[in-house]
Each structure stands twice: as C-alpha cells, then as structure tokens.
Amino acid sequence: MSVDLKSTVFLPKTDFPMKAGLPDLEPKLLERWARIGLFDRLRETSKGREKFILHDGPPYANGNLHIGHALNKILKDVITRSQQMLGKDADYVPGWDCHGLPIEWKIEEKYREAGKDKDEIDIVTFREECRQFAAKWIAIQKEEFQRLGVVGDWDHPYTTMTNHAESVIVAELGKFLMDGSLYKGAKPVLWSVVEKTALAEAEVEYHDHTSVTIWVKFPVVTASHPALEGAKVVIWTTTPWTMPGNRAVAYGAEFDYVVVEVASSDSPLAVVGEKLVVCADLAEQVAKDAKCVFTTLATLKGAELAGTIAHHPLKFHPDAKGGYDFAVPLLAGSFVTTDTGTGFVHIAPGHGEDDWHLGKEHDIAIPDTVQPDGKYFPHVAIFAGMEVLNQGKNGKYYSPVAKPVIEAMTACGNLLAHGKVEHSYPHSWRSKAPLIFRNTPQWFISMESTGLRAKALDAIAATRFVPDQGRNRIGSMIENRPDWCVSRQRAWGVPIAVFVEKASGQPLRDQAVVDRIVEAFKAEGSDAWFTSKPERFLGQGRKPEDYDQVFDILDVWFDSGCTHAFVLEGEEWPRLSWPASLYLEGSDQHRGWFHSSLLESCGTRGRAPYDAVLTHGFVLDEQGRKMSKSLGNVVSPQEVVGAQGADILRLWVVGSDYSDDLRIGPEILKTQVDIYRRLRNTLRYLLGALEGFSDAEALPVDQMPELERWVLHRLQELDGQVRAACDGFAFHGLFTELHNFCAVDLSAFYFDIRKDALYCDKADSIRRRAARTVFNLLLDTLCKWLAPFLSFTAEEAWLARHPSETGSVHLEQFPEIPAAWRDDALAAKWARIREVRRVVTGALEVERVAKRIGSSLQAAPLLIVSSDIHCLLDGLDMSEICITSGMVVIDGMPKPEDFSLADVPGVSVAPHPAQGEKCQRCWKVLHEVGTASHPGTCHRCSDAVDAHQHA
User: Fold this and answer.
1) Structural contact between residues 386 and 276, judged by C-beta atoms closer than 8 angstroms
2) Residue 205 in 3-state DSSP?
3) What is the DSSP string of 495-549?
4) What's the CATH code of the domain at 412?
C-alpha cells in the first residue's frame, strides 16, 4: 500500500501566528499580568536580592503623553526589567509632579474665559480645582504608560500633592531654614509679566526675539583723565526698558578705549564736534552704526577710567522732576566684552545678575522700577505706568516703552543711534512670552553659607554619568549658578511655611515650629497653612501680630528635588532604598530634576540622591526637525500603539542611540516593523520546529555535531554582550547583534542547513535530536533575552512553549550560559566554512539566474579548494552545509572558468547539475532514488518512513 509521504515529514507546527496582531494581543497580556499579580510576585520572589532602584523622575500631570514621554518611560522599563532578569530586586515606583504654574495656568484660563479674576476666588477652593485637574490627568497618563508595557507599582504611585509628600517637602525646607541657608533677599530673577511670577531656569526656553537696540550717551561729570572732560560715554543695549533702572556704567579694565570727536555725520543724533568715549576695537563699527565719522583724540586704558562719574542721560528731561538726579559711576566689570556694542555696559542692578553683583560690590542701592504686571511703578519718572512688554496684534511680543525711551533720550540729546536685532532670548515655557530680569524680594537657598556648592561638586565627581559628558555639563552649571531662588508668587503648591519676625526682619528658626507645621501637613495637607490660625504653628509664648506669615509658594523644582526623601526614604515604600541606583531623564534635566535633586540632597544629606545618572536625547522627526502641530510631523505614541503595537515603539527605543537625539516617523517605524517581523519569525520557526519536543529527546552537548556546538558558542558570546549592554544601559549595539544573530546566523545559515534534518531525518536521528535540543535552548534564551525589550512578544512566545495559568517569562532570569560552550577555535573554523559556503552559494545563484537550475538541490557542484581549506573541511558534508544534492571537494587549483570571489582566496566552484531522480520526500536529486523499499524515495527517507509507520 502506498504511503502519504507528506504525512511522514516533520513540518513545523505552531499556533504562534505569523502576524502578531499586537494592538489586540497586548491589552490581553496586560490583563493577564494584572490577573496574576506580576508586580507583586516579582517583589516577593526578589526578596533578599541586591536592590536596583531606578527612581522615577516625575512627569507633569497636565496632558496626554507625547513621544518623549514614551521614550523615557520605555527606557526606564527596559532598564528595570533587564536588571531584574540579571538577578536583582529591581523595584519601580512611578510618580507625578502635580504642583506649579502649568496646572495653575490652566485653571486661571477657565476663570479668564468666564470673565473672573483668580484673586477673587477663595485660595483653598482654587487649590482644590488644581488638585482635581492633576488627579484627572494622572489617571489618564497612568493608563497610557501601562499600555506601553511599563511594569511598576501602578496601584500605589507617588505624587507630590499627597499629604505625606507635602509634609516631607516642608520638613526638607525646614532643614535649610534651621541651618541658616534659607534667607530672604532682593535679587533680579527671571520674571514672567504674563504669569506674574519668578521662573526657574528649567522653566525657561530660548527662542529668537526681535529687540530694539539703542546707543546712549552718558555725559561725564567728573573726569578721571583730562581727555574725558566734556565727553560722553556711549553704551549699547538691547533692553531700552531698563534705562530708568540705570545706576552705573561698566568697562573692561584691560581694554583700550578711545576719546573720539564726531568729524562729520549723516545723522541728526550724532552731533559734529561732540566728544564720545568707546572701546578702541569697536569704534569703527560704532561710527558705522551712528552714520558718522570719528577723529581719535586720545587713547586710554580701561583702568584709567576708574573714578569717572557721569550723570543719567535723562537727568535734564523736562518731565524728570529730579527722578534721575544721581551720580552714575564708571566701574570695572569682568563680564564686559568687546564682541558687540561699545565696550561699555549700562548697569541696571535691578535687571541683571552681573549688574546686581556689581551694584552690591559698590554699595549702590537697587531700585525697584517694574511692577509684577510689567508696568513701571508710579514713582518712575517720565515712564510711570507704561508697559515694558506686551503682545502685538500679530501675536509677537514687543516692548511698548522702547519708543518713548528713544524719544526721551533724543529730547535730551543723548541718543546716538537706534536699531533692531534678532537674538536668542529667554521665554516662558508655558505662556511662550519673553521674560524680563526683575528685582524682587524672594526666598533663596545659599550656595555658599553651608558649603552647598562644594558638596554638590564633590557629589558630581562621585557619580557615574551615562554618557560621561553629562558630568561636565551639570558641573559647569553648579560652578556658576547663583543662589537658588525657591519662592514663587503663585497659589498652587507647597507654601514656604515660614514666619518672619517683624522686629528683626529675620525668619523664625525654631524646630518646634517646623515640627508642628510638618504634623499639620501630614494630617491635612498643605492647605492647613491657609486655613489655620498662625498661633497653631507658633505655639504658646509668641504673639501672631509680631510675625509675618509667608504665603509664597515653593518652586516646583524644590518639590521634585525632594522626591528622593519621601519615596526612597519614606514610610510608604519601605521596600525601597536610598540613594537610588539610577536617575534617568532627558538631557534638559541637568538644569532641572538632576540639578534640584542634587542641591536638595547635598544640602540635607551631604551627597547626591543617586549613584548614577543616565540622560537621553530629544525626539525629532525623520528630517531632524522639532515636532510641531504646524509642521504636521507629530508622532503620537497612542497612534503608534493603536496601529502597530507597543512592542514596535519599544523596539525603536532600544534600537536607537538615545545618548543623542532620536528620530521617528513613518519610514523609521516601517523599518522597525521589518526588524520586528524577522525577530518574530525566528521565534515562530523555533516554536514550530519544537512541536512535541521533550527533555527525553535532548542530546548532551558532547554528542552534538560541530554545527550545533558552534551555535552554542554564539550563545555564550552573545550572553556576555547582553549582560554588558544591561550593565552599561546601552542597548542599540546589542539589538544590532541580536537581529543579525536571528536573521543571518540562524535563519540564513543554521536553520537553512538543518531544515533537511529536522523535516526528513528519523525522529531519533542524532542530527535531528541535536538540532531540536539546540532549538529548545535557543527559544528559551531568546525569550528571556528579549523579555525586557519586546515584553509582549517574548511573553507570547514563552507561553506558547510553556503554557501556564500563572507563569510568565518576566518571572524568569537571564539564563546562565555555561562558559564551556565558548570555543573560539571552533568559531574561527566555522567562520572560514561560511566563507566557502558563500562562494558555493554565489556560483549556484549564477546558475539559477541563467535558469540552468531551479533550487540548489538540483546541483552537485565540484568544489576546488587549497590544501589548508581541504584539511579544514575534512569530515564535513559540504553538500549538507551548502544545501545541494551532492558535492565533490578536491584539493587543487581553480580553472579560469570556475566561479570564485576575490575576498575568499583558495576557493572556486565548477557548477554541475545533480544526476539521478528527485526524492519525493526530501527533494534531493540522487542516483539511489527508486532503489529503496518505498517508491520515489532515497534510502534515508525510506528508512524514515518505516520508522514513522512503526512509531
């Protein structure tokens, strides 16, 4: 009776689909992880292991996630999962930043649209609205983060607005209060006239802005050198609105200055015969800007200007009324440059950091000129009530007072020229409006009084930075930063819970008061500061009328800088540990969260709250452009996940060099889909080939053919790369290796060779058993290696191989690959064998293109090799390796007509068609077909059919 030969072939069988269907599959796996309590089980099984704590930098709870959020959270998840599978207890508590301007601004917008003033609303009511707004977005973002496959304590995340968090934040502030480093002072800070508050550097963006420029003449009153008599010192500024705040002029002591006379002029502002003083290197450019010609009268060194006094250019304006009747000294300033301008800098101590320091150094009073809303105070002569900044009809911001300043200077004869310049200028990241430097009373933490700067610099030296250049970046910021301004004139946040003694003007430093405030916040939250009477905190023996209660709000960066205190040390997550193993955020956080956390921790604990800091770049479109709705190039993570699956986004993250900016777009995602498909097909092929495999079939390594032992060697090599990549938090190189391993080493080489043995050998043949044993090792290893990265697909493949109600690949650890599997000599040998195979494959491809053969099994070529290669191939079946029906290997010299490759010397191929009949089971063309007991088969296949029938 005839046999159905197809039924005797061991074709791959698996329910693991070729098409992933990730958008449908992934939510089911998320439900499964929740059902089996994956996170809690990980914590239980990890007890006693070395801890790895990646402390989550809190995203802001005010909108849907963007692609940058996806990059950040996926990378955190990949690192946490990989550390867990390295055998550590890698706990992860996600968190949110809830206080601050962005949320408050949204609530204010609602009131503005209703025609209401926020200040008319009860502050506790307003704060509750902010709290509810944050809570709404936390719930939305939580779902979006989990959809990306991020495993963490989602049932108990941290937020900066809980009673516990707020009580710890105010307790941390109390430490700075008690050690004397918290103080109140008046300094120029970056100020938003739109939001009416100070802003931290991390809340500032730099955009191009067009400013009016003016060249102003300061008449000399007292000359330090005879050449200066009757002269006017010329300054240049891009901020005309700061001129009412001028109190001095700075020069560079080492520069050369010239006293010039206007010889001729094409401008009514440059008066012929007028004596001016400018920097020698800039005189030619100043003359050009002023449309005049200078004649040099004298040259002086900057140091010779010391002692010169001018008067304010507006002193004799008819509307000045004594408002500018004060001396304007010339002072040496180390910050003066000769890049642009005149070599003189007008000093407005209330409107600049350098100006303020120079003014303080020379005991110059710091004037208040601009109110919180950006209008001049009523006492400012000439310009009272005018706006320094406003938004034009075209949507662009400008300085309305620039024109009146120009007109006033012109009326006094002290304007030399004016123009416009486009330059990079600080803007609010929320309102997008330009900022001003404005002198305001604020609360500061000193960088010097308790050695905070030195402690922070020491901590940076002791911290691991990935990449290492992050160390220099944050280090230079700490070296040069001013005292930390921690106060904001807002409503939503943790208040600066401090009392100031009216008599002395000093903050009340009493630990008992701090403790009472902390306890109140722990019980009721920071609203207690607004709802309680002062005596609740001041205690017995103090009269409330003797103290001013401070109602400024803490800088939100102080909040997030304290997260290490209430998360890693807090009573709510006792399983965590301090300091964190790793902080991980975008590179902008060197001036943000890394920075504020460093200062807060060094100020209260003397060291950084982290052992290592990793930074990633920003996400750009495929052309390297910033994403924006107007360009239509925004890639939404929700859309990618909905259309292609979270694993595609995860693959993009780990396949990118995130130490630099990353790019994403349709074509890049298409490439990721192609890579994913090859990885998935590898898993699918392994699953199919392992159908019915059990441990009883496994073959010991020492009985395996060389080819299988070479695969095990590759696993041992890759194991070192996997572990090194996880330790170094650098995955893109690893994924190139893993992809090449699956696509080239396995699919195009090993699987290709072993298909014949897997399908057509007897079930118990050594070759087949060896291959299936290795396939089983490959599948388990690849599932575990891929688990931190392609978390959904690895789980799907694992469960297809190990069906279980409660099991998960994420409960496993990376496999321990025996060191004995490494065999460098064997690897070198098979590298050369693969080169020989490449020559044969090339020769057969020529035959196929010429249509002399169809498949490679229709060939039986002659392989001519040099003596050393002939020895190398001894004992190997090259027809099996090259997938031909036969092959003769001879030691000899190639003929000119033979096929060869220039980069593989000593190897040539003479193609010949295989002779005989085609086996109807294995498709090899052999003379023996037709002589076996089963018609149409070769001897091997006939034996396999017999074995199958008797199985």
Assistant:
1) no
2) strand
3) B---EEETTT-PBP--HHHHHHHHHHHHHH-TTHHHHS-THHHH-TT--GGGEEE
4) 3.90.740.10
Q: Same structural domain for residues 347 and 393? A: yes
pLDDT at 1: 46
pLDDT confidence of residue 236: 94
Give strand ranges (E) for 383-463: 390-391, 397-398, 415-428, 436-445
Closest to 128 measured CA to CA, from 556, 551, 492 = 492
Q: Is 938 annotated as a binding residue?
A: yes
Let me know: does 157 contact 134? Beta carbons within 8 Å. Answer: no
Is residue 114 exposed (0-12), middle (13-18) or buried (19+ Cβ within 10 Å)?
exposed
Q: CA nearest 390: which of 241, 246, 244?
A: 241
Low-confidence ranges of the chain (pLDDT < 50): 1
668 and 791 in a common domain: yes
Tokens (6 digits) for 910? 């003479």
Check whether 922 is labelled as a binding-site residue. yes
Burial tier of 6 (Cβ tally within 10 Å: 0-12, 13-18, 19+): exposed
The two tokens of residue 604 are 């209260």
Q: What DSSP string describes 283-314?
A: HHHHHHHHTEEEEEEEEEEGGGGTT-EEE-TT
735 and 804 in a single domain? The answer is: yes
Is 594 within a domain? no
> Is the domain of 328 the same as that of 231?
yes
Question: Is 325 within the bounds of a domain?
Answer: yes
Say if residue 726 carries a ligand binding annotation.
Answer: no
Three-class DSSP category at 567: helix
Q: 905: cis peptide before it, omega within 30°?
A: no
Report if residue 667 sits inside a domain: yes
Q: What are phi and psi of 259, to 5 degrees?
A: -95, 120
Rounded CA-CA distance 399/239 in Å is 9
* pLDDT value for 112: 81
Rounded to 5 degrees, φ, ψ at 636 are -90, 125
Residue 688 lies in a domain: yes
Same domain, 889 and 816: no
Secondary structure (DSSP) of 660-716? S-EE-SHHHHHHHHHHHHHHHHHHHHHHHHTTT--GGG---GGGS-HHHHHHHHHHH
Distances (CA, A) of 322 to 317, 379, 804, 921: 9, 11, 88, 109
How many Cα atoms within 13 Å fall on the side-chain side of residue 545? 0
CATH classification of the domain holding 795: 1.10.730.20
Task: Give the pairing type, strands 499-501 and 275-279.
Answer: unpaired
Cβ neighbours around 182 below 10 Å, total: 24
Residue at a domain's end among 822, 847, 881: 822
Rounded to whole angstroms, what are the CA distances from 527 to 466, 522, 621?
Answer: 40, 11, 44
DSSP string, 445-512: E-SSTT-HHHHHHHHHHHSEEESTHHHHHHHHHHHH---EE-EES-SSS-B---EEETTT-PBP--HH
859 and 808 in a single domain? The answer is no
Statement to judge: residues 215 and 316 lie in one domain:
yes
Count structural domains, the chain.
Answer: 3
Residue 760 counted as an annotated binding residue: no
Q: Are residues 864 and 899 in the same domain?
A: yes
Kindly compute the dihedral angle of the four CA atoms of residues 783, 788, 789, 791, in this order, to the nearest 10 degrees.
70
For residue 865, give the CATH number of its domain. Answer: 3.30.2320.20
Residue 585 is assigned to a ligand binding site? yes
Tokens for 531, please give them: 């709802």
Is 941 annotated to bind a ligand? Reply is: yes
Strands 415-428 and 436-445: unpaired
Which of 373, 394, 429 terminates a domain? The answer is: 429
- Please give the residue range of the domain that contains residue 808: 5-17+662-822
List Cβ neighbours of 23 (8 Å cut-off, separation of 6 or more). 641, 642, 643, 644, 645
Give the pLDDT confidence score for residue 202 in this predicted structure.
Answer: 66
